[in-house]
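WARN retry 2 of 3 for item q-0093 after timeout on previous attempt; input resubmitted unchanged.
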Amino acid sequence: MKLGAFSVSLAVKNLQKSKEFYETLGFSVFAGALEQNYLIMKNEHSLIGLFQGMFENNILTFNPGWDTNANVLDDFDDIRAIQKHLKANHIQLEKEIDETTNGPASIMFFDPDGNMILIDQHV
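OK item q-0093 returned
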């Protein structure tokens, strides 16, 4: 299964302080804005999303259809096919999508240890 770009979405208490911390580790702002309460930071192929006040816990995020530069991939598994695969393998989804639609959509579920996984397709 092709899940696309991977990032960790961190629920942060102070976006500016977190930005400065990750800049010290070599990350730079790739997307988002402080005034929107989120930043996507990048260090080579590593992506970290910093989100202040948007969700309670950290989330593992996959973006089908994108590479690590948010370029659209020619070959990727559509989120609807991914959802069908998960359901066929008895993965309980917290958020499902209508499989008759197309384009951008997202699904959410938990791994066995309670970690939230977001599959968020933008294309």
